Amino acid sequence: MRIQLKRFVTILVLLLGIVNTAVGRQTGTTTDRHGQIQMVLSSPAFKDMEPLPLKYTQTGTRPSVTLPEGMIGAAVSPPLQWSNVPQGTNAFVLMLSDTSDTLMWAVVNIPGNIRSLPEAIPNGNKSEKLPAGAFQKSYRTNGWIGPGAAVTPEAAIRYYWRLYPLDKRLDVAVDATRDEILSAMEGHLTGNKAVMISPCCYGSK
Amino acid sequence: MSMRMQLMRSILLLSIAFSTLRVSASQGGTTGAPSPQVPASAATQGRLTLTSSAFSDYGALPLKYAPNSAAVVTFDATSPPLAWTNPPARTVSFVLTMTDMESSMGDNPQDVLLWMVVNIPNNATSRLLAEGVPRGRTSMLPEGAFHRSFLTNGYLGPQPGANLHSHHYLFELYALDTILDLPRDVTLDQLRTAMKGHQTGRAPLVATCCVASK
Question: I need a labelling partner for B74 at 20 to 30 A (CA). Which of A45, A118, A167, B214 fits?
């Protein structure tokens, strides 16, 4: 009896989902449960899943081993833009992590009406290039640090961009870790993340 | 009472499942036709490398591995074949995970776990997963290994939301210096906690699905 009931509910819910999908395909305006379409992150400077240009890397601008803690090299942050923002989004967090979950860049508390970040945001949180109220950091600087992977194929690694749409600004310290930022976002996503992957630095130009 | 709780539990699980079915319009996508510029063969020398004979790194996951509308209902999906080379020194076992990077579960930021295979022993004959590991069984897995998704005891695969706007699917192989002592209903968070301090290597493989998939 219990199993039958569970099974019935399972099938019912799944069928509803499929009908929803089919209707959306016909109209071309299918929405998710938040009433919005999939958010998309892109850059005018590089494509998803293609090598990150060298100007954005430590590798292409200055060897990472000489970079003192807290300092930024000559690498500049890349321009980014996004669209199809879920309804009810009041803030964004952008994170770039490498294959080992090292936090290469976080821009926290980007206001919900912002749809892009300009190229070359200076370190620190006072520049007008940084959206008002937002702050930025990497695992060892207060701004963009840039990938430092070598240009040889065996040393190439990949970097994962994730843009999180949130229903509120986060109450986290400006030196919060990746784990702390992730924990603070729990329960506050308004829809799917937007994702890009940047291999670096084999093939980067 | 127990029945009611069971029922509530299944409804909860199902609503979580459906939160991943983020259906979307196919406009402005960045994932339509990926053109990887990093030749996989060039990057494979010397370090732990995960590959599939069915798709290339940064390529499209074949539709065969994405459940159709009938298979979604029964949670039956065919897992893709995977293989790996160059295990680092001190490697005792491997863990394979597959996550949907776009989807979020219950308004939480974590990527959604579509498959994990835990405790694959490191020996020369078991550095692969054959296609189609059956749900709920371990007979096709090496002795001691088990598998599950966030929802089922097997491979779940891309969900229908990815049919209208491709998602990024991240396969990751973790090489570990130990066998993990974990329950078979382990969550991704618990798995990651258990793996801390035990990794001897980690290898990614990325596929998109399903707009460009065939």
Answer: B214
